[in-house]
Design goal:
single chain, alpha/beta, 5-stranded parallel beta sheet, 5-stranded mixed beta sheet, 15 helices, 16 strands, globular, binds iron/sulfur cluster
């Protein structure tokens, strides 16, 4: 492409799906996992029984994003191909893409400033902010957009809120790429605003302010990093529309919707509710299905413990682990290597803030007949799930 020409954006792949299918399957599929699914999601070896959740692993958005990245690498063999950062939150998948020659703009030594018309940039499944997209376009980069349709649905509603004068109240993590991108959509209309709440406790603070006002400075200090520039709770909490990061705990997103709606009802009454509160269905069906599946598994099977597989910075995996840990002992592991021995397991503590390092626990594998529940986050390939089952078998069945 020549300088000054408009950027080309590929949003539906690059017509190379069949050409990369073999490589994708070799890198991410597992014959063992397919067998377990065929056997009713149950695996037995000696004293070990593994119950696999009926929905787990790669979601449709991740599947598509990784597919498009492989297609981009295949199509543009003679041009530098970049990712803005992690395509999904799984280190194994990102390492495979690095090994294929795709460069990460988030890596040390890389810079957006050097990008130009010869460069190809892949946008991740959780999208990029409005400003980042404009920058890539201004540089004339060729773009391969893998933003998931479920994320686009949230953006569409957030821009509607902004257009209609409603503040987007986003249930999410304000540092997460998807939430930053979603929040940026609120600013595409003059006067658009957003506020990000992490959990029910933060939503309660917002509800208290909606009902009775409060100390403006204390509120702004608490949400300093989570609001749009110039946010004023006295002005910007009068009309609120709910949205969420698609990978949050869905039961909590729904609960937040209920309490915020009630706060608006208390403040303005039923007749005025529609003028002050809006919500829409932003639940990503893949996230919902994976969360429902572990609840279902734990209701059906009396497991001794749960193993949840996924990147430690994967929001949906952390939330699966939270769900499980409320019911049974749960270990969130990154891969099979975390199962060091029958005595030692390396894992991420459940329910703690992002950034906490892996810890090591002992005596995690009980003696005798053993029933283990297993699931994996939406960015975990089946190949890793299969290796975890193999490792559990080694630790419980095979001699030595
Ligand atoms: S978790 Fe949901 S929103 Fe995110 S990529 Fe997967 S399908 Fe799309």
């Amino acid at each position: 492409m020549l300088p000054g020409q408009p950027a080309v954006i590929y949003r539906k792949g690059l017509d190379l799906k069949d050409a990369v299918a073999g490589a994708l399957s070799a890198d991410y599929d597992s014959a063992l996992v397919e067998q377990i699914k065929a056997d009713g999601y149950r695996y037995v070896a000696g004293r070990l029984t593994v119950h696999l959740a009926h929905e787990f692993g790669f979601c449709y958005g991740v599947d598509r994003a990784v597919d498009y990245a492989y297609q981009a690498r295949r199509r543009f063999t003679d041009r530098p191909v970049f990712l803005t950062g992690e395509i999904i939150h799984n280190p194994h998948v990102n390492d495979k893409l690095r090994a294929a020659g795709i460069r990460f703009l988030s890596d040390a030594g890389e810079s957006t400033e050097r990008l130009g018309p010869d460069d190809v940039v892949i946008l991740p499944a959780f999208g990029v902010s409005v400003a980042e997209l404009a920058d890539f376009q201004a540089r004339g980069c060729t773009l391969v957009d893998t933003t998931c349709g479920s994320v686009l649905n949230v953006w569409k509603n957030v821009t509607r809120y902004a257009r209609d004068g409603f503040t987007a109240l986003i249930h999410g993590k304000y540092k997460h790429e998807e939430t930053r991108a979603t929040a940026s959509q609120a600013l595409t209309f003059p006067g658009g605003r957003y506020l990000v709440v992490l959990d029910r406790a933060e939503a309660d603070v917002v509800c208290d302010y909606i009902r009775g006002g409060g100390d403006r400075d204390t509120f702004l200090t608490r949400f300093a990093h989570a609001v749009s520039p110039g946010f004023d709770p006295d002005r910007d909490l009068l009309r609120v529309g709910l949205a969420n990061q698609t990978t949050m705990l869905m039961s909590e997103s729904l609960e937040i919707g209920v309490v915020v709606e009630q706060a608006m009802r208390d403040r303005y009454g039923d007749a005025e509710l529609a003028a002050h509160y809006r919500a829409f269905d932003t639940i990503c069906s893949a996230t919902q299905e994976r969360q429902d599946a572990v609840v279902d598994l734990l209701a059906r099977e009396a497991v001794d413990l749960m193993v949840v597989i996924g990147g430690y910075n994967s929001s949906n995996t952390c939330n699966l682990a939270r769900l499980c840990a409320a019911r049974v002992p749960t270990y969130h592991i990154a891969d099979a290597e975390c199962l060091a021995s029958g005595q030692t397991i390396r894992h991420r503590p459940v329910g703690v803030a992002k950034g906490v390092a892996e810890i090591q626990s002992g005596a995690w594998l009980p003696d005798g007949a053993l029933s283990i529940g297993l699931t994996a986050g939406a960015s975990t390939p089946n190949a890793i799930v299969g290796r975890v089952v193999q490792r559990l078998t080694e630790l419980t069945v095979l001699p030595g």
